[in-house]
Design goal:
Pfam families: Glyco_hydro_36C, Glyco_hydro_36N, Melibiase. This protein is α+β, with helices and mostly antiparallel strands and 719 residues long. Helices cover 20% and strands 31% of the residues.
């Protein structure tokens, strides 16, 4: 079984390719219990795991430091610890914990999953801590979270509750990988030496944020795309979060992650418990590529609600209309889109209230009275008559001052006593932590789906929190940072339960809410408002480090691009978008007949390769996407799809032969189109010479290459 007790205080957590050994050590002088990580690396048999548990190396301790803090599963604030704590609790004026061990239990959860719970109690106060570890027999991702329980009438305040601390085994040097960004420049991959000290990745915005994403990978500086050991930690949470990576001066690295950010206070009522979101850990011995593929497969098996479905080709009307949504124009767009082979039509912002610009009507979720005096039914039926499904853009978490909702319920917006209410994008944030706001949002969303028979919501969130207060809750108002996100989850969960056919896309002004927490409730995510194909390549490269292509919405829009003004061939724009979930967002009536014909052909090609792209194993090949020759490859069963890119025409240096990977070296593969047959070993060792990679030519060349395995072993020469 995945959880193997080694004795009463030690356990081996076993995944298909790794072992994670933990122990509870008891200080013989103080009686304090310290849950500690003893091993995390390649899979070991039980006897070997027992041996590493008993043979842990001691770290040098001075009167000024306790270096072994980095090995603790949940370093608490108290005792002889001085690094960033994973748990901070105050009992009145006493901010300290002294935990003792109260027992462990193993639970079978079905479908090959087991959970280990370690129970700790404070030495004086009736305060409990439960450290939970879940492991499954079909993934190398380990899930951890923390529960704290308050058992007395005394005041208890939690100021930090991380999901867990992960120790990265000793190495001569350390390198971190993560992503940074901004609006229209999300998910930019960065790698660098991990400095001694604390390196913090965080969002204080109330959403996952554009500036960082809640994951980090650590290696020894020698890992490559396909070789080397990599340890990764990710947080499944869509609000404010924090990952603290600590590199001790004496050596040793740990990563502690959880929800919230500096300065928040969560007061617990007597008998109340607080549960953290899950922190996820992954060890991979196959480099960054294998780590990414493990994350992707975990998402498909244990996160995404409809992972086995094929995502439809959608059209979104935003860039063609902005706020000027009319029945006649939408139907014109729908007829053209359907003729191209589009399967889902999404009406974006501008269909409701008096929404003529971004200063008004958020909160007034009924059809625009002037443009749709008889409602939306006729428009939506007209779209369905073309053979497409239909969806709407919504932004349930925000409100305009100029709205009937705000005039009726100004107290529903986040606010603080004696402080102004700052607007961003002409709007305020609703306090979704309030049950009445949550119930209101579910009510109108449920009504829209029911009355209009909707297939799809694009759920947007276009600004971070400001003045994030809840005056009615007084000392407990910091709970808004937790309960807002939890109630967003609850509304999405209820909608999906009530309407099993409904699909939801997560958007937050682009890529401001992408994480495994929101992905548990949605079917795809929008990684950036920047649809420039060249910029999108770097965004998609960063996205692929953790998240699978089948969740990544990618549009083909107009040229020159509305954001960057860069002109680019339609073929290149399509080939970049075909690396994820293909969508169209251009002003179709202005496309030429030649462009429309080419678009229809490329959409048909995408539908042929869609199962491989959305469900296959992904491999990142060659150079930096968007900057030099690159390619992305997908493999599913006997099918291989490769999208090849060359953004710079006059590029004489760099590879001109594309070597594939992840194939059967003894098999024979046939190239679609010319029928040529290739040994798998040749495709991986010598490679092919894509026309797009020729050293002289136009900028922005690309091609689609498709192979199918035709023989599992080569018994005769290639014809």
């Amino acid at each position: 079984m995945p959880v193997t007790p080694l004795d009463d205080h030690q356990w081996a957590i076993t995944t298909p390719a790794s072992t994670y050994v933990i122990a509870v050590e008891i200080d013989p002088l103080t009686g304090e219990a310290t849950p500690r990580q003893k091993y995390w690396g390649p899979r070991l048999p039980a006897e070997a795991a027992r041996q590493v548990a008993a043979s842990g190396a001691r770290r040098h301790v001075s009167s000024f430091s306790t270096p072994a803090e980095v090995e603790e599963l949940l370093p608490v604030d108290g005792g002889t610890r001085w690094s960033a704590p994973s748990l901070q609790v105050a009992f009145g004026h006493v901010r300290s914990l002294e935990p003792s061990f109260a027992g462990a239990s193993v639970h079978d959860e079905g479908d090959g999953a087991q959970r280990l719970d370690l129970l700790l109690v404070d030495a004086h106060h009736p305060f409990e801590i439960v450290l939970s570890v879940r492991v499954r027999d079909d993934t190398d991702v380990i899930e951890r979270w923390t529960t704290v329980r308050h058992r007395s009438d005394a005041e208890v305040t939690v100021t930090r509750l991380d999901s867990g601390n992960w120790f990265v085994p000793d190495a001569a040097s350390y390198r971190y990988s993560g992503v940074f960004g901004a609006w229209a420049e999300e998910l930019q991959l960065q790698r660098g030496p991990l400095p001694v000290g604390e390196l913090v990745f965080t969002s204080r915005q109330g959403v996952t944020s554009h500036t960082a994403n809640p994951w980090v990978m650590i290696d020894d500086g020698a890992a490559t795309e396909e070789h080397g050991e990599v340890w990764g930690v990710a947080l499944a949470w869509s609000g404010s979060w924090r990952l603290t990576t600590t590199h001790r001066p004496e050596g040793g690295v740990c990563v502690s992650g959880g929800f919230g950010h500096d300065g928040l206070r969560w007061t617990l009522a007597p008998g109340e418990e607080l549960v953290s979101p899950a922190a996820l850990g992954l060890y991979s011995a196959g480099g960054f590529g294998a780590a990414s593929r493990s994350w992707h497969e975990y998402a498909r098996r244990h996160v995404l609600p409809t992972a086995r479905e094929e995502r439809p080709v959608l059209y979104n009307s935003w860039e063609a209309t902005t706020f000027a949504v009319t029945e006649a124009h939408q139907l014109e767009l729908a007829k053209i889109a359907a003729g191209l082979g589009v399967e889902l039509f999404v009406i974006d912002d501008g269909w409701f209230g008096g929404r003529d610009d971004d200063t008004t009507s958020l909160g007034d979720w009924w059809p625009h009275r002037e443009r749709f005096p008889d409602g939306l039914r006729r428009l939506l039926d007209g779209i369905r008559d073309t053979g497409m499904r239909v969806g709407l853009w919504v932004e349930p978490e925000c409100v305009s001052r100029d709205s009937d909702l705000y005039r009726a319920h100004p107290d529903w917006a986040l606010h603080m006593t004696h402080r102004r209410r700052d607007e961003k994008r002409g709007q305020l944030v609703l306090n979704f932590a309030r049950d009445d706001v949550r119930d209101w949002a579910f009510g109108w969303l449920d009504r829209l789906v029911t009355e209009l028979d909707l297939d799809y919501f694009k759920w947007d969130m276009n600004r971070p929190f400001t003045q994030a207060g809840w005056p009615e809750r007084e000392a407990e108002q910091d709970r808004v940072w937790i309960e807002h996100t939890r109630n967003v989850y609850r509304v999405m969960d209820l909608l999906r339960e009530r309407h099993p056919r409904l699909r939801i896309e997560s958007c937050s002004g682009g890529g401001g809410r992408i994480d495994f927490g929101i992905m548990r409730r949605t079917d795809e995510v929008w990684p950036s408002d920047n649809t420039d194909a060249r910029d999108r390549q770097t965004v998609q490269h960063g996205f692929s480090q953790l998240y699978p292509a089948g969740t990544m919405s990618a549009w083909v829009t107009d040229s020159p691009n509305p954001t960057t003004r860069r002109a680019m061939p339609l073929r290149y724009r399509f080939h970049v978008a075909m690396a994820g979930v293909l969508g169209i967002g251009g002003n179709l009536p202005e496309w030429t007949s030649g462009e429309l014909a080419e678009a229809a052909e490329l959409i048909a090609q995408y539908k042929e390769i869609r199962p491989v792209v959305q469900h296959g194993r992904q491999y990142r090949l060659a150079g930096t996407p968007g900057q030099e020759r690159s390619a992305v490859q997908y493999v599913l069963d006997d099918r291989v799809v490769v999208l090849v890119y060359n953004p710079l025409g006059n590029a004489k240096r760099g590879p001109r032969h594309l070597r594939l990977t992840g194939l059967d070296p003894d098999a024979l593969y046939e190239m679609t189109g010319d029928g040529s047959r290739w040994h798998g070993s040749v495709l991986m060792s010598a490679g092919i010479r894509p026309a797009a990679w020729e050293p002289i030519g136009a900028d922005h060349r690309s091609e689609l290459v498709v192979f199918r395995k035709v023989r599992t072993s080569v018994a005769e020469p290639v014809p």
